[in-house]
Design goal:
single chain, Immunoglobulin-like, 5 helices, mainly beta, 3 domains, binds copper (II) ion, binds CU-O-CU linkage
């Protein structure tokens, strides 16, 4: 089968295509890393292949990926391929889609990668501790014809809560973090280290893939002195546009692909600021220009990415489901009005506070059905809401149509915000819908949606 025919056929025919297979081995285990510069000591971490983030996995769109995972941790783990439309059995959700990988055991994930873009991988087992200790990595799916740029760079953004001796604070899932904004750290890293500078050259065009791998921190990045174009969100192409207010906002688990022309002068420095939290802005790093330019004027090349083979939801004929998020401190709902609330379970989805990954689905969708989820954030807090197995068009926010109808797998909702997302339920199985602030997830903010193949409707 030719590549073009496969792409035109959509997800199901891609899943059957027999392209080349990329083999990767990931060993999850303890490691050490220089998170903060000397004279601080190194930090004991949990790592894939010894580093945090783990190795960047790169595949071509339509390729098969086979990842053999070996668990050398003292506890069970899994890997979830965040944003990739994998078959349910490869989704890495403990007990719901697979038996967790016991210490000393291995598991092989294998799937075809249908969409180009920027994705990431992380454990779905006790992720509030496993991800925080360093288990995460970028997964880049290259377009058959990549954008013309001088450099394709990934920044895995993360934050850590370190003690004075540079060790990771062990207060995972404490009540304050669980009931409020989640575990915000005190040390922000790019690709696992606190950085002073990122070297660039005048005239250079960079495709910058941002991945927010933090448990709870929302980033709002501003590139001083530069015109930034967003070309993809959560891996999916979007009409190239400047970020609203000049700030790229990324909730936990979200990604953005940027194209930046380095229009500064040789030898110059420009700050990259994170201004998301009011009065807590800080400098992430400086863009530091080399003395020699790369070229006199920026590259002239198109910015728009080719679309991925996503099925277009029929909004007019879509089934509509309401999903409400409640709980947290300052909500007036802490007293256990919701099923399962109490004893550290402070968040609920459609009235249920989950205590594990296995639960009755909130609702079932027949496979192939277009649907709209009307999301209601009834809380005083931000929540990045993630749906597994699908990408969804964000069609409205607070009743207003969105400008770009962007595809997302993780939708950041402001306090009290409403959003409508639309997608075709084409991927059969039980799929998580949860907040990606990992402390909120652990404290009940997750649910399951079932997509039923024809003939199984009961
Ligand atoms: Cu990135 Cu359910 O997770
Ligand atoms: Cu949340």
């Amino acid at each position: 089968m030719g590549g073009v025919a496969v792409l035109a056929g959509g997800l199901s025919s891609i899943a059957q295509s027999a392209g080349p297979t990329k083999e990767v081995r990931l060993v999850a285990g303890p490691g050490r890393a220089r998170v903060v510069p000397s004279p601080h000591p190194e930090t004991a971490i949990w790592a894939y292949n010894g580093t945090a983030p783990g190795p960047e996995i790169r595949v071509r769109q339509g390729e098969r990926l086979r990842v053999a995972v070996e668990n050398r941790l003292q506890e069970e783990t899994t890997i979830h391929w965040h944003g990739v439309r994998v078959p349910n059995a490869m989704d890495g959700v403990p007990h719901l889609t697979q038996k967790p990988i016991a210490p000393g055991e291995s598991f092989t994930y294998e799937f075809t990668v249908p969409d180009a873009g920027t994705y990431w991988y992380h454990p779905h087992q006790r992720s509030l501790e496993q991800v925080e200790r360093g288990l995460c990595g970028a997964l880049v799916v290259e377009e058959p014809e990549p954008l013309q740029v001088d450099r394709d760079v990934t920044w895995v953004l993360d934050d850590w809560r370190l003690l004075k001796d540079a060790s990771i604070s062990g207060d995972f899932g404490n009540r304050m973090d669980a009931g409020m904004s989640g575990r915000i750290g005190n040390t922000v890293t790019v690709n696992g280290r606190v950085r002073e500078t990122f070297g660039v050259r005048a005239g250079e065009r960079i495709r910058l893939r941002l991945v927010n791998a933090a448990n709870a921190r929302i980033f709002g990045l501003e590139f001083e002195g530069h015109r930034v174009q967003i070309v993809a969100l959560d891996g999916q192409p979007v009409e190239p546009h400047a970020p609203e207010g000049g700030r790229i906002v990324l909730g936990p688990a979200m990604r953005a692909d940027l194209v930046i022309d380095m229009t500064g002068a040789p030898g110059a420095r420009f700050r990259v600021m994170d201004t998301f939290y009011q009065d807590l802005e800080y400098r992430l790093l400086d863009l530091a220009y080399a003395d020699a330019p790369l070229r006199e004027r920026p590259l002239e090349a198109p910015l728009a990415l080719p679309g991925n083979p996503l099925p277009e939801p029929d909004v007019g004929a879509a089934a509509r489901h309401e999903v409400t998020f409640d709980g947290g401190m300052m909500s007036g709902m802490m007293g256990g009005m919701m099923q399962g609330m109490g004893r550290g379970h402070v968040w609920a989805v459609n009235g249920v506070s989950a205590s594990g990954h296995v639960m009755d689905p909130m609702f079932a969708l027949p496979q192939g059905q277009s649907c709209i989820l009307a999301l209601h954030n009834n809380t005083a807090w931000h929540h990045p809401i993630h749906l597994h197995g699908h990408s969804c068009r964000v069609i409205s926010r607070n009743g207003e149509p969105t400008r770009h109808r962007e595809w997302q797998d993780t939708v950041l909702m402001a306090p009290r915000e409403r959003a409508e997302i639309a997608f075709v339920a084409d991927n059969p199985g039980d799929w998580m819908l949860h907040c990606h602030i990992l402390e909120h997830q652990a404290a009940g903010m997750m649910g399951v949606i079932r997509v039923e193949p024809p003939g199984t409707r009961t």
